[in-house]
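Whether sequence alone determines local backbone shape is best considered at the level of individual chains. The sequence in question and its structure tokens are set out directly beneath this paragraph.

***
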Amino acid sequence: MNVKRVAGALGAEISGIDLRQPLTESTAALVREALLTHKVIFFHRQALDPAQFLQFARAFGNPIEYPFVKGIDGFREIIEVKKLEHERINFGGVWHSDTTYLEEPPMGTLLMSKEIPPYGGDTMFANQAAAYRGLSDTMKRLLEGLKGISSSAKADVSKTREDRIRTDGQGASSKDYTASHPIVRTHPETGEKALYVNVAHTVGIEGLTEDESAPLLRFLFEHQVKPDFTCRFIWQPESIAFWDNRATMHNPVNDYHGFRRVMQRITLAGTKPC
């Protein structure tokens, strides 16, 4: 197994491994170490069927269902993330960490490309531990103890789900989710501190009025995606990205109108941030 960094901030490509085969305990440990070190890892030329994709994911955690979109036939933990030729809005097309509006947001997410456009459709990632380290000591002290309020109903991101809910929705009445988490969370495995707010889901700060919280959140939203904290992944057919949701954000770039992009996604259960 070979690990090659792709950017200074985060991200590494892993080669020399066939994910169609069950991982040995030692190989799984090496992959987890790479994930914790680089925060997002990439694999190419991995022609996995849904059962193999799920088998790979289970080596690192417990796959969970996404609350708004039903899974593919026979695999309720795998959803399709897609944008069709006639659609203009892409699923999750804004900087975010996955489902921070849940009381126990996922620890990680795996995304596998099934159909990609002839150009565009890259995914950007941002290292939130690096973003935290980039703050002044005074700002770090200011953020200590503050909790951000996340909502599934924030307009910028709920709009990006509309096409998929229309075609692949769970069928139940739509439910809004809300949760509060530390603005600075401590990673349960590495001990690193990382920013844990995002423009897609964070709607306020506990104990502050909207007028008080808005300028602070606006600063954080801009700071946490500075180019120095990011990398950009160019998808190939049968690629996989596996990111640590506790220390990264991501943003799928919507620059391929008129073309189809179909991915399969698995999220892994996490714990309550602290």
Remarks:
- The chain has one domain: 2-268.
- The mean pLDDT is 94.
